[in-house]
Automatic annotation (TrEMBL):
Annotated Enoyl reductase (ER) domain residues: 10-333
Protein name, per record: NAD(P)-dependent alcohol dehydrogenase
SUPFAM superfamilies per record: GroES-like, NAD(P)-binding Rossmann-fold domains
Gene3D superfamilies hit by this protein: Medium-chain alcohol dehydrogenases, catalytic domain, NAD(P)-binding Rossmann-like Domain
Superkingdom of the source species: Bacteria
Annotated PANTHER family: PTHR45033, ZINC-TYPE ALCOHOL DEHYDROGENASE-LIKE PROTEIN C1773.06C
GO molecular function: oxidoreductase activity
Alphabetical list of InterPro entries matching this protein: ADH-like_C, ADH-like_N, ER, GroES-like_sf, NAD(P)-bd_dom_sf, Zinc_ADH-like
Length: 335
């Protein structure tokens, strides 16, 4: 089978297309999946581009979607031919004992889904939403489930609330679409007038250009008659967190997800305390969260926004496109 490996010490120039033996037949409790699609996340880009971020010859990519080709003994949840999508934390099935590192995350601590076939425990997958393509389903493992957990699991989103999303990456677009489907008002930020029109077309009620309005937290307050956003999907990190706190309502939930602007910074703790906001970090979600999300998505009338599609052997070019920051929605692999 074809696969993409990353040779030490890493970097996009060390991404290699290789031929590997096909995986073994599934043992008891396992399934074999023909992988047809993956999608790129900032986490994947960091693994691929940062020096020595993962082991030599690591098969990249955390997201994988495809069709079951064989089933081991004792597997009753799936059947051959089912469309499935991988989970980010294969060992985190449910509950509050959350992983705090990436040791078992595909494409990082263990081999991922940039390959044509895998044999893994059945619990490392869930059903894909009915009627979705493999590329659409592949966007759920990381970006989709992160948005779902930020809004629903941790944020307890209610109809009529206001959600603030930052930028136009995969998590933010998912959060916009989900929030609108659940009856929320959405405020979005971008630095592009072209992307602003696309955000409005997806249902964003207010769009703020953060280059034209550097104090965009105040603009969010102005757009909500001084109340602020009930949930903030904070994907930026240290350089945007202060504005997100300013933009949040009293009692707001701020889902701290991203490191797009760095790994450390200052926090205006007095304002956070005064507003009695909740600032909670999260890394994707559990298998149970994903199953709940898939059931919900089958009731909605939209599909993920896919910016562009690349074949497996063009993964380095796909990463370069992602790194340029001009994409709107998800960048996917199809193979």
């Amino acid at each position: 089978m074809k696969a993409i490996q990353l040779a030490a010490p890493g970097g996009l120039e060390h991404i290699q297309l290789v031929e590997l033996p096909s995986p073994a037949a599934p043992a008891a409790g396992e399934i074999q999946v023909r992988i047809h699609a993956s999608s790129l996340n900032y986490h994947d880009l960091l693994v691929a581009s940062q020096p020595n971020a993962t082991a030599d010859a690591r098969i990249l990519m955390a997201d994988g979607a495809g069709t079951i080709t064989a089933i081991g003994a004792g597997v009753h949840e799936f059947a051959v031919g089912d469309a499935v999508v991988s989970t980010f934390f294969p060992q985190w099935l449910s509950g509050r004992h959350v992983p705090s590192d990436f040791a078992m995350v595909p494409g990082d601590g263990v081999d991922g889904f940039a390959r044509e076939s895998v044999t893994m425990p059945a619990t490392a997958f869930t059903n894909a939403p009915k009627g979705w393509s493999h590329a659409e389903a592949a966007t759920l493992t990381t970006a989709g489930l992160t948005a779902w957990r930020a809004l629903v699991v941790d944020g307890n989103l209610q109809a009529g609330q206001t959600v603030l999303v930052l930028g136009t990456g995969g998590v933010s677009i998912f959060a916009l679409q989900m929030a609108k489907s659940m009856g929320a008002r959405v405020i979005a930020t971008t630095s592009s007038h072209i992307k602003a029109e696309k955000l409005r077309a997806l249902g964003a009620d207010v769009v703020i250009n953060y280059k034209d309005t550097p104090e965009w937290g105040n603009a969010v307050l102005a757009a909500t008659a001084g109340r602020g956003a009930d949930i903030v999907v904070e994907v930026g990190g240290p350089d945007t967190l202060a504005q997100s706190i300013r933009a949040g309502a009293v009692g707001a939930h701020i889902a701290l997800i991203g490191v797009l602007t760095g790994f450390a910074g200052t926090i205006p703790t007095v304002e956070l305390m005064r507003k009695q906001q909740t600032l909670k970090g999260l890394i994707v979600g559990s298998r149970e969260h994903q199953q709940d999300m898939v059931r919900a998505l089958e009731l909605f009338d939209w599909k993920p926004v896919i910016d562009s599609r690349y074949p497996l052997d063009h993964l380095a070019a796909a990463f370069a496109h992602q790194a340029a920051g001009q994409h709107f929605g998800k960048v996917c692999l199809e193979f």
